[in-house]
Amino acid sequence: LGESNALDGVFDKFLSGVKIFLNRNVLRHDYIPDNLPHRGEHIHRLGGILAPSLSGSKVSNVFIYGKTGTGKTAVAKFVLDRLEHKAKEVGAPIKICYVNCRFAGTNYRVLADLCRSVGMDIPFTGLATGEVLDRFRNALNSGHSMLLVVLDEIDALVKRQEDDSLLYELTRINERLHGVWVGLIGISNDLHFKEFLDPRVLSCLSEEEVVFKPYLADELYDILLDRAKKAFVDGALSDSALRLSAALAAGEHGDARRALDLLRVAGELAEREGDNVVTEEHVRLAQQKIEHDRVSEVLRSLPLHSKIVLVGSYILNNHSPQGSVTGDLYEVYQELCRVINIEPLTQRRISGLINELDVMGILNARVVSFGRYGRTKKIRLGVSAKDIIQIYSEDSVAGPLIGYVPKCLQKHRSPA
DNA sequence: CCTCCACTGGAAACCTAGGCTC
DNA sequence: GAGCCTAGGTTTCCAGTGGAGG
């Protein structure tokens, strides 16, 4: 009964408490506002490039690049949205397909998404990629629509499998279409992406180029102000909190997405505390929370063996905080596997997993040479030991291993 | 200058789980 | 059901290597 009363209190506090948000969805990154400050030029440019499609003409392929959170996706979606409306109005047969290549992951799945957009279902595995491409082409030929394809985060596609065959095929697909065409809009976060590409693909893909520069702190401020008006109740957001969010995000290569996250999380924190104004302090806490949530999410969703490797690295970190080497970590890893009765993977594979964890920033690994004593990777934890304990204490696999003291460490070296 | 450690990281083969066509 | 295909994870094999110690 006591608990139910306490819960009532929580609900009452929420209901009677001062409202912070008017509409928090405005701060989500998939929200496309009616007005994109400081991107008017880009919108005009892209609109101008794509406009001929309304009269059925083939448009130039466009290559858009800039860092994360510079408004590439927002501008592209904004323009295409308007274009789609206009096309309906004037009866132009245009279809639009948006694919995020990082989420799709492979050539095959991107292609499957494209097929789906022209109304054809493709099984998630089983067909030869060439076969899927043929079907895609047939569907286009038998339909009567022009297709504008947005390939967002296109760099993820090529880098992951060192293979630009899909892009090559797509850039040449118009040669074998009759009466219809496909326009490509590639979006890349990576400015060096171009160097990975086959020059033929590149020249075809970037008939037009649009570059997005990072937002400056002032520009971020304008963007946030614009959204905050719709997102927050009048007076619920202090100007200093707004400025701090803009400044922090400007420090992170002008990432508007980050700025919006900061504002949203800060608002949620204030709401939960029952405060009626979002302050700088809330924004600072929000920054910590975002980082912690990111780490937590990544650690939780790690595959089995990566978790064991990470716990191994944590144990070695307690033992010798200045860092360990591949051989030692592999020894501990093998022992941990034995404890929970799992067949260990080979050292070659673990070496690869360590590299993956390094890329994610969960471990720091760099190659060092100890001369006579060989060449190896020096490995340190990239997240705090505290976070590992907290996040893994409830994990069914990693939890029981956290406090384990491996025998291979007890023998020679004494704990520091 | 040479040796040789303890690996690194590339390449290719292998395995599994799915699904196609005939 | 046989004989293909794919993705994705893993194993096997191995040439290559920075630099301390001889």
SSE layout and pairings?
Elements: H1 2-16, H2 40-50, E1 62-65, H3 72-90, E2 94-100, H4 101-104, H5 107-117, H6 129-142, E3 146-152, H7 154-161, H8 165-172, E4 182-188, H9 193-196, H10 199-205, E5 208-211, H11 217-231, H12 239-251, H13 256-273, H14 280-300, H15 304-319, E6 324-325, H16 326-339, H17 347-359, E7 363-369, E8 375-381, H18 385-392, H19 407-410
Parallel strand pairs: 1-4, 1-5, 2-3, 3-4
Antiparallel strand pairs: 6-8, 7-8
The protein binds a DNA duplex (22 and 22 nucleotides) through helix 17, strand 7 and strand 8.
Characterize the structure shown.
By secondary structure, the protein is of the alpha/beta class. Helices cover 54% and strands 11% of the residues. It has 19 helices and eight strands. The chain has helices spanning 2-16, 40-50, 72-90, 101-104, 107-117, 129-142, 154-161, 165-172, 193-196, 199-205, 217-231, 239-251, 256-273, 280-300, 304-319, 326-339, 347-359, 385-392, 407-410; strands at residues 62-65, 94-100, 146-152, 182-188, 208-211, 324-325, 363-369, 375-381. The strands form two sheets. A five-stranded parallel beta sheet has the order 2-3-4-1-5, sandwiched between helices. Strands 6-8-7 form a three-stranded antiparallel beta sheet. Strand 7 (363-369) and strand 8 (375-381) form a beta hairpin. Helix 5 (107-117) runs parallel beside helix 6 (129-142), helix 11 (217-231) crosses helix 13 and helix 12 (239-251) packs across helix 14 (280-300). The longest helix is centred in the last third of the chain and has 21 residues, at 280-300. It is globular, with a radius of gyration of 26 Å. The model has no long low-confidence stretch (mean pLDDT 86). It binds a DNA duplex (22 and 22 nucleotides) through residues 105-106, 108-109, 123-129, 131, 303, 325-327, 345-349, 351-352, 355, 367-377.
